[in-house]
Amino acid sequence: MSMPTLKIIDSIKIDVYSREHPPPHFHVIYAEYEELIVIETLETYAGKLPSVQRKKVVDWALDKRDYLLQNFILLNPRL
Length: 79
Hints:
The protein is α+β, with helices and mostly antiparallel strands. The chain has two helices and five strands.
């Protein structure tokens, strides 16, 4: 259970990994792109997605922040 995919939106994978670092974030992978997005603010922590794909992810994540944070905490109980 080290990196479950929580959602796939039009070939965009949303993952939360174990053995992570603060701040709580999720990974978004699309083709050769990867972006880490902070759960609380939905701001970019690192990387970059094309804007169309990023908008789809943020639109999905707006009301899923509790779900994302619960999964992050479950996989990273020491943080």
